[in-house]
Amino acid sequence: MRRILLMTALMACAVPTVRAQDAPRPIKALLVIGGCCHDYAAQKEILAKGLAARANVEVVISYDADKGTKKLNPVYENPDWAKGYDVVIHDECSADVNTKEIVDRILQPHRDGLPGVVLHCGMHCYRVPKSDEWFKFTGLTTRNHGAQAPIELTFNPSSPITKNQSSWKTINEELYNEEQLWKSATSLVKGKQFKNDYVVAWTNLYNDKTKVFATTLGHNNVTVQDPRYLDLVANGLLWATGHLSEDGQPATGYGPKK
Predict the structure, then answer these.
(1) How many whole angstroms separate alpha carbon 95 and alpha carbon 140?
(2) DSSP H helical ranges for 95-161
(3) What CATH number should be reported for the domain whose range is 27-144+205-240?
(4) How far are the Cα atoms of 173, 230, 238 from residue 248, in angstroms, in the given order?
(5) DSSP secondary structure letter of residue 173
(6) Domain boundaries in the chain?
(7) Is 209 helix (H, G, I), strand (E, B) or coil?
(8) What is the pLDDT of residues 159-211, one digit of tens each?
(9) Pseudo-torsion of CA 64, 115, 234, 239, nearest 10°?
(10) Per-residue confidence (pLDDT) for residue 10, from 0 to 100
(11) In whole angstroms, what is the distance from residue 28 CA to residue 23 CA?
């Protein structure tokens, strides 16, 4: 009887340990945010909390309060800036940071296979003279945008990222001009504003191996905190890190924590 009781106690103690070991490790995401022209102080919190509410992800924020276009986010000063992260969310607005050596440092982890998510003004950063390398990474060449006005969004249901999303119209937002969608990219969402009808969200395969999700939406806080926008970005992050099922739902263990 003593042996039975002892074995029962040991088994009871062992169960939580096994479950803890089997629990999926949260996705560790680095959110690089700050710079010109946006309310990044608020948006960093909106994004971090919104993503954590939708996926098993821990967001580490590297926020730069500088409001200019020439300041490099401090996180990039470390050559090993991306070490330990599963994905990087580029939401900075540093249009005049264009030194090749610096941009190469930012891109190197992605060249090595680190997934990326690029939001809004991140598309207009790091334009090294006579180089399209940043656009090759994002998957879309865009250098400017029009006035703010509502954008009508239509979704491509063939991707798990957008499979369960429906068309909707934004508040006044910036529609980024589409110069070239690269052959490595696949359109997911189209945005119509006045007579312009451009890609506003897509996936890209950088250097034939690195998965990138990108959207030009997200100028104003109202858009960034819209549940439909956060759903799109969360799905894009899960897809980029390989944790989105074909049915458009998070892979087992990578949905929101309960």
Answers:
(1) 16
(2) 100-111, 133-138
(3) 3.40.50.2300
(4) 26, 14, 10
(5) B
(6) 27-144+205-240
(7) coil
(8) 999 999 999 999 999 999 999 999 999 999 999 999 999 999 999 999 999 99
(9) 170
(10) 44
(11) 15
